Each structure stands twice: as C-alpha cells, then as structure tokens.
C-alpha cells in the first residue's frame, strides 16, 4: 500500500493518521501491560512453588528427624528390655540356687526368707517411696510425646501400651506363681525342720528325764522327758 504524501494530505487525512498512530501506540502499551502481567503471574507461581518445595523439604527433614529419634528410642527400649530380662533370669537362677541350698541345709533357711522382709521393715516411708520410684523408673519405659502427633505415632503408642499391659499381666502371673512356689517351699522346709527338731528333742533327752536346753534353728526350747 503506497504511503500518502504528506504534502497532498488533507487535514482530515492527517487527523485519521494521527488517530491510527494513537490506536497503534495504545495497542502496543496494552500488549506490554499484558506481557508484564503474564511475567508477574509466572514469577508469583514460581515463588509459590519454591515456597512449597522449601516447606516440603523442611517437613521431610522434620519427619526424618522424628523417625530417627523414634528408632533410637525404640532401640534403647529394646536394650533396656533385654537388660531387664537378663537381670530377671539371673535373679531367678540365684533364687533357685538359694532354694536348693536351703533344702540341703534347713538351718540356713530362716535368714534367707527373712532378709528381704527385714530390709523392708527397717525402711522409712521416704526410703520406701524412693525404692518404689527407682523400681518404676527401671520397669516402665519413658513415653515419647512427639510420637503422639500423628496417626502413625498414635498407632505405635497404642501398640506399646498393649505390649506393656501384656508384660505387666505376665509379671503379675510370674509373681503369683513365684508366691505359690515359695509357699510350697516354706511348707516343705517347715515340715523338714519340724522333723529335725523332733529328732533333736528325742536325742537330747537325758537318761534321768531332766529338762535340757537345746539349740535349734528357731531358738532354744526346753526338752522334757515323757
């Protein structure tokens, strides 16, 4: 399209040309504004994505740290449980050996069954409370509050509580069985001791029937001829 010669342009032509120029410049400015909006929106979306990525990385780091702590706590509880089991086994073994020695030598049985009772009887209320607190601290694992902040943590906690309840009932059962065995052992040993005392009483009677004092495991008694 041939350009219009400015010298031959009428005022109307010049006015139309000026209006077209202004329209073109307005379109260019609008295009620039639209482009700037697109760029700003893109930058905003990029920033949102980056913030989400940073938040996700922080959350992942937090969960990894929590998992690591839970695993460490679980490992320590496992080691503590193994230690308690080993101590309990050694204690049971020692008790069996003591009962065996007591059966072989009834004269030593009384101190064995009284030592623990005497120890507790001599304790003050403060010492008994301390003994209870130390025992509970050894037997009851520490709860991890951070593990309760998620569904998985609650499931783990519920499992641990169930396990502890089962262990508590198991310990109660063991104590009851132990008490039954001890009562049986005491009855058996008492019968043997009484039998030995009777033999000593018979052997200590003098030929003239005089009363004599003899030593037996539970103190002195008077022996008298029939």
From TrEMBL:
<feature type="compositionally biased region" description="Basic and acidic residues">
    <location>
        <begin position="11"/>
        <end position="28"/>
    </location>
</feature>
<feature type="compositionally biased region" description="Basic and acidic residues">
    <location>
        <begin position="69"/>
        <end position="101"/>
    </location>
</feature>
<dbReference type="InterPro" id="IPR038077">
    <property type="entry name" value="Troponin_sf"/>
</dbReference>
<keyword id="KW-0175">Coiled coil</keyword>
<feature type="coiled-coil region">
    <location>
        <begin position="179"/>
        <end position="206"/>
    </location>
</feature>
<feature type="region of interest" description="Disordered">
    <location>
        <begin position="69"/>
        <end position="116"/>
    </location>
</feature>
<feature type="compositionally biased region" description="Acidic residues">
    <location>
        <begin position="1"/>
        <end position="10"/>
    </location>
</feature>
<feature type="region of interest" description="Disordered">
    <location>
        <begin position="1"/>
        <end position="28"/>
    </location>
</feature>
<dbReference type="GO" id="GO:0005861">
    <property type="term" value="C:troponin complex"/>
</dbReference>
<dbReference type="GO" id="GO:0006937">
    <property type="term" value="P:regulation of muscle contraction"/>
</dbReference>
<dbReference type="InterPro" id="IPR027707">
    <property type="entry name" value="TNNT"/>
</dbReference>
<protein>
    <recommendedName>
        <fullName>Troponin T</fullName>
    </recommendedName>
</protein>
């Amino acid at each position: 399209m041939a350009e219009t010669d400015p010298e031959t342009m009428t005022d109307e032509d010049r006015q139309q040309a000026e209006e077209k120029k202004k329209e073109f410049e307005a379109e260019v400015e609008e295009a620039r504004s639209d482009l700037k909006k697109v760029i700003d929106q893109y930058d905003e979306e990029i920033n949102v994505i980056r913030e989400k990525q940073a938040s996700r990385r922080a959350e992942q780091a937090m969960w990894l740290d929590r998992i690591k702590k839970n695993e460490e706590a679980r490992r320590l509880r496992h080691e503590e449980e193994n230690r308690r089991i080993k101590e309990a086994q050694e204690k049971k073994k020692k008790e069996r050996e003591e009962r065996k020695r007591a059966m072989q030598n009834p004269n030593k049985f009384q101190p064995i069954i009284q030592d623990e009772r005497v120890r507790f009887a001599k304790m003050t209320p403060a010492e008994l409370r301390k003994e209870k607190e130390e025992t509970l601290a050894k037997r009851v694992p520490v709860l991890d509050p951070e593990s309760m902040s998620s569904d998985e943590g609650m499931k783990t906690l519920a499992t641990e509580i169930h396990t502890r309840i089962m262990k508590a009932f198991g310990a109660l059962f063991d104590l009851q069985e132990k008490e039954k065995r001890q009562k049986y052992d005491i009855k058996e040993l008492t019968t043997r001791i009484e039998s030995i005392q009777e033999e000593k009483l018979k052997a200590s009677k003098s030929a003239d029937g005089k009363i004599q004092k003899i030593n037996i495991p539970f103190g002195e008694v008077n022996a008298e001829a029939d």
